[in-house]
Model the fold of this input.
Amino acid sequence: HDGRYNGLLLGGDSGAGRWGLRPDSMTIASIDAETGRTVLIGLPRNMADFPFAKGSVMHKAWPRGFNCGYPNCELNGVNTWVGDHAALFKGDKNPGMTATISAVEGITGLKINYLSMVNLQGFRDLVDAVGGVKLNVRQPIPVGGLGADVTRYIQPGVRTLSGLDTLWFARSRDSSDAYSRM
Done:
């Protein structure tokens, strides 16, 4: 559309021992069809009161923006909300992703052409497949926590992290908040 391919890249929080799915990481890769130059646009998972694409099922349900009146009325909660209201999407095989795309299109004004999502294990596997990710770790990052024991720390410095360590770097809640992790 308009000389660009727009792919929505999602990182979902499903995995062993977890219930449901929330896409906690949402990035649009907007690629110029002629040059291949790419712009990445990250959307905050906790965005609230956002519009949906006009004409969509979600826009009809929420014409003034997503404000459902209970927790998880944020961008990453759209998929979960739709799971409880799937009757709105008769015949749609993946209504949660349809609604999430509608939200992203409503927020950005971009038409999403493609979708790709990985869960927690898929993220680890993807990072390992490309040989790790080089990052500047600014403070010790715990590996573990979030209901489990901390087993060790990723030490500060410029280092190439494995899939497991990159996952913990991204998910750490120690001395950080949602915006730091994004």
